[in-house]
């Protein structure tokens, strides 16, 4: 069965600082990987996705993520955080066959200090 | 936003009462899902559907049932609500071609008192 671990429950960074959110997955084959963001009281918005090809993927809002098969990781990065990035971030993995459902990590809440 | 509408958006109900949440989509997607979101657990799959009248269980299906009589509607029913079912419920779809990227509704906040 697939699983996702987000080791950091809560992260605080200063505005303008760089950000890296960690994600480790467990899946037998090549995974489909996603990062979603959720602002308070809102639904989930897709930031970026990885299916194949270039292991460094670019997303919306200046985010990027790097797929590292050897480490089973898909960490999310942003070079300079803005106050509006404060939200909860979820990493997810999916199979490309069968029910196609996402398995989510428990999330990382990002707080941005002025 | 993939044309997903959830109703109601908020509901308070009493323990032991039945509750039905509705997910409506306008783009004829085959796959639909119900997740629940709880602090510290992320989102967990309750049930999913891969076509009209074709449904199956997810990881946290106990106490829930679903129905899909039309492509556009996916209903989640709590037959007898319990306090442990207080949660935020999200409906999602995935497209049938290419990626398994999921699009989510705005969620339904359900409180069982």
From the structure above, extract its key features:
heterodimer, A: 114 residues, mainly beta, four-stranded antiparallel beta sheet, B: 113 residues, globular
Q: Quick summary of this structure?
A:
By secondary structure, chain A is mostly beta strands. Helices cover 0% and strands 52% of the residues of chain A. In chain A, the strands form three sheets. In chain A, strands 2, 5, 6, 10, 11 and 12 form a six-stranded mixed β-sheet that branches.
**Low-confidence parts of chain B, pLDDT < 50 over ≥5 residues?**
none
Give the helices and strands of chain B as they follow along the chain: EEEEEEEEEEE
Query: Mind describing the biggest β-sheet of chain A?
Result: 6 strands, mixed
Q: Assign a percent range to the helix content of chain A.
A: under 10%
Please give a structural write-up.
The complex is a heterodimer of chains A (114) and B (113). In chain A, the strands form 3 sheets. In chain A, strands 2, 5, 6, 10, 11 and 12 form a 6-stranded mixed sheet that branches. In chain A, strands 3-9-8-7 form a 4-stranded antiparallel sheet, with no helix packed on it. Chain A contains no helices and 12 strands. Helix content of chain A is 0%, strand content 52%. The termini of chain A are far apart. With 114 residues, chain A is an all-beta fold. Chain A has strands at 3-5, 10-14, 19-21, 24-26, 32-38, 44-50, 56-58, 64-68, 73-78, 87-94, 102-104, 108-113. In chain A, a hairpin with a 5-residue loop joins β5 (32-38) and β6 (44-50). The relative contact order of chain B is 0.32. Chain B is mainly beta and 113 residues long. In chain B, strands 2, 4, 5, 6, 9, 10 and 11 form a 7-stranded mixed sheet that branches. Chain B has a 4-stranded antiparallel sheet with strand order 1-3-8-7, with no helix packed on it. The chains are: A mainly beta (114), B mainly beta (113).
């Amino acid at each position: 069965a697939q699983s996702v671990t987000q080791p950091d429950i809560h992260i605080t960074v200063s505005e303008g600082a760089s950000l890296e959110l960690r994600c480790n997955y467990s899946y037998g084959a090549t995974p489909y990987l996603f990062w979603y963001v959720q602002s308070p009281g809102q639904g989930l918005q897709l930031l970026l996705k990885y299916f194949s090809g270039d292991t460094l993927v670019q997303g919306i809002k200046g985010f990027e993520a790097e797929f590292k098969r050897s480490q089973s990781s898909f960490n999310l990065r942003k070079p300079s955080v803005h106050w509006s990035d404060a939200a909860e971030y979820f990493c997810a993995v999916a199979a490309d066959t069968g029910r196609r459902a996402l398995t989510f990590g428990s999330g990382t809440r990002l707080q941005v200090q002025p | 936003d993939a044309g997903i509408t959830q109703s109601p958006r908020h509901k308070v109900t009493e323990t032991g009462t039945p509750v039905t949440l509705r997910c409506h989509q306008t783009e004829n997607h085959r796959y639909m899902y119900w997740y629940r979101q709880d602090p510290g657990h992320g989102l967990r799959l309750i049930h999913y559907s891969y076509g009209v009248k074709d449904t199956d269980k997810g990881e946290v299906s106990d106490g829930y049932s679903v129905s899909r009589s039309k492509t556009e509607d996916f209903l989640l029913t709590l037959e007898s609500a319990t306090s442990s079912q207080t949660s935020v419920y999200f409906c999602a779809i995935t497209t049938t071609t290419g990626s398994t990227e999921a699009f989510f509704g705005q969620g339904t906040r359900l409180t069982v008192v």
